[in-house]
Amino acid sequence: MTPVELSRTVLHAVRRAVDEGQLSVAVPERVVVSEPGAGGCGEYATNVALQLARAAGEPPLKVAEILRPRLIAADGVEDVVVTGPGFLNFRLDRRADPLQELVREIRGRGERYGHGDALAGQVIALRVPYEVRAEVVADAVVRIVATQGGRATVEHGEPVNLRPVPAPEDPAPLGPDAARWALLHPAPHDRPRVTADHLVQREGNPLFRVRYAHARVRSLCRGAARLGFAAEPGPLDTADARIKVGAGFDTSIGRAVLPALRTALSDHPRILTAAATHRAPDRLARHLVTVADAVLPFVTCVLPIGEEKPSAAHQARLALAEAAGTVLAGGLSLLGIDAPEHL
Questions:
Q1: Prior bond of 269 cis (ω within 30°)
Q2: Where in the sequence is the domain holding 252, given as residue range(s)?
Q3: Could you give the 3-state DSSP secondary structure of residue 81?
Q4: Which of 119, 139, 146, 258 could disulfide-link to 150, CB 3.0 to 4.6 Å?
Q5: Is 158 in the same domain as 290?
Q6: Count of domains in the chain?
Q7: Are 138 and 131 in contact (CB under 8 A)?
Q8: What does the DSSP 8-state code read for residue 130?
Q9: In sequence order, what are the residues at sequence separation of 6 or more whose Cβ sits closer than 8 angstroms to the Cβ of residue 335?
């Protein structure tokens, strides 16, 4: 179970306690899960009981005890221990591989991975000026809000509530994909760069890195098919992940690459929720760059090398690469940008 999954599990437990009348509180939008502090135990901990106690009119320890049985019953949780004034500490099922579970979740949900109900039932009225960047940002916000169960409408008129810094010139000559990226990638308060740099196919261009990473993943899938094997989630041995460095391969880098890739993928639901809540597609755009930068060093170890025969390890690596490609494709789609099969 990943921290993001555990956070959702805690939120679900709070909702159940509220629905069943044991807690009378507003369910928070998110719950922070982190490593246990001094006096804690297990792999993760949360202070949600302390946060809810005042609104619930109950001591934090009682709130924690109300949530504890619901959390112990969750898949992937082995035990929950209450420590201090009401911290909930989690010991996870050691038989479960968090990265393997994450890959299975992404494969199961496809491009809907990260979609949730944080804005369920909400209608957000966007009022924008007649300006190309505002129009493009609003279009992306409509798509992203829908991923969280909400609905956004766009109209022109005062008072304007969505007004990013306008583009200095018409971005249309860049083409639809580069133009949208140029307007969506910067934060709303930053002046966008409408230059041909967005068309250059090199590492310094973030859009190129994102689209290239997706194309590389699709190329791996085609290569695996030619070699007669397909993706299958399974154990990933970091010591066995050989990352290409120059003319050779370094096994030690795999220990750093896999955690970075796992973090980038597990953060995707949180980023989508934040982008929807704050009407900020730039957060999603920058997150896609993080995913691309995490998967690109990994792709060199996915297919068999030299005389190697395809193995379960190669199937597991391909499944992880595919998961990253799914996140990239889904994110680009929400921004209205094409995810190419070839580049």
A1: no
A2: 97-343
A3: strand
A4: 119
A5: yes
A6: 2
A7: no
A8: S
A9: 140, 143, 180, 181, 184, 281, 284, 285, 288
